[in-house]
Amino acid sequence: MANHPISSRISHRLQQLQTDGLLRQRKLAELDKASANNLARTIPNIIDFSHNDYLGLANDPEMIAAIHAGAIKYGVGSKASPLVSGYSEAHLKLEQGLCELTGHEGGLLFCSGFSANQALIKTLFEAGDVIIADKLIHASVIDGVKDSGAALKRYKHNDITHAEQLLNRFPNSALFTESVFSMDGDRAPLDALSNLCKQHNSWLVVDDAHGFGINYEELASNRFNVSRAAVTPQCDIQVITFGKALGCQGACVLASQQIIDYMVAQSRHYIYSTALSPASAHLALTAVNLTQSQPDKASTLFANIAFFRSLCNAKNIALTESITAIQPVIIGDSERTLAIAKALKQQGLQVGAIRPPTVPKGQARLRVTINASHNAEQITQLVDALAVQLPREY
Ligand SMILES: Cc1ncc(COP(=O)(O)O)c(C=O)c1O
């Protein structure tokens, strides 16, 4: 094995990543104080500001009861691919619930958002098609485009003028954006993009991974309204993932019935893979319903975000314009970012240390995420620690 040329190449590349400070490694997740408090558990030892469970649903007692109930009713595994016998009432109900909420005609479930994006693009597009995408679009979209053979044209991040130039050159195409950008937390100008796409006979496809479940528009204007707790972007296709604000796992492509029918018939990711666990489907539907019935979770999140931003402001910690749960603190240098994250960890505070190529070169950052389970004391502890750790010139 050691003499195998591919082993040598891998070894060389691992070494290089290590040298460049870009080697990614797993760490065992520790019990999160904020979530643990929810359940009145003991042994909390970390306050987690790194995950995407924005509404605190992953540890919510109703969610835990729901996965149990789902497992008892439907079983823990789907046991087969959807077209064989893995598609159950639990899946149908979730698809229907999501369609009702978003207004799309049909939905198709996947085990992850990454596979949903890849399946969508690989199935619908082919050589000769053009996909226009925001410069910061997620890796799964880029990989999907590569698989499909379509041409990829990128516009500068959230730059409507540049997007319009590309649409002028490539009408009848599909434009992809995220609703809330995963590493920056800023939001796409969906209304403007939707109008542009209509004018150029192009589809608007929204990766709503970080937006679904929280209506920032209404929260920001204090018009929070139960019936609109889930954002329904103006778009032809919407991809939502269950692993962020819904606190569980899986994803759904929402689109016209024609597109869904075609994907059922043609999507290799869908046809040749074991269906999402029915217990997970039941759980995700419970989460969707909780976003509707408990709007206080989103309001608490929003108040926590505002509190974090006001404390940072008072301590001269520069933030971006993001009003969402994703609050990046841009450091620049990768090593420095890692060192700060490590120092915070030693104080019991977990933040994401995000480096290129996930973010552009020179823009390594602490990806701080705020959630509804954090309390004022925990947020204050983080900001105090950040103020000590950040470079003096910051
Ligand atoms: C914007 C975006 N799209 C898609 C995905 C993939 O979703 P999942 O984690 O369910 O695979 C992610 C996950 O990080 C994401 O941030």
Structural overview:
By secondary structure, this protein is an alpha/beta fold. The protein has two domains: 24-53 and 295-389, Aspartate Aminotransferase, domain 1 (Alpha-Beta Complex); 61-293, 3-Layer(aba) Sandwich (Aspartate Aminotransferase, domain 2). 45% of the residues lie in helices and 14% in strands. α9 (190-199) links the parallel β5 and β6. The structure holds pyridoxal-5'-phosphate. Pyridoxal-5'-phosphate (PLP) is lined by residues 112-114, 117, 138, 140, 178, 182, 207, 209-210, 241, 243, 251.
What is the topological layout?
Elements: H1 5-19, H2 33-38, E1 47-49, H3 61-74, H4 82-86, H5 89-102, E2 106-110, H6 113-124, E3 130-134, H7 139-148, E4 151-155, H8 160-169, E5 174-178, H9 190-199, E6 203-207, H10 216-220, E7 237-241, E8 251-255, H11 257-266, H12 268-271, H13 278-293, H14 295-314, E9 326-332, H15 334-346, E10 349-354, E11 364-369, H16 376-389
Parallel strand pairs: 1-10, 3-4, 3-5, 5-6, 6-7
Antiparallel strand pairs: 2-8, 7-8, 9-11, 10-11
Helix pairs in contact: 3-13, 5-13, 6-7, 6-11, 8-9, 14-16
Bound molecules: pyridoxal-5'-phosphate (PLP).
Pyridoxal-5'-phosphate binds next to α6.
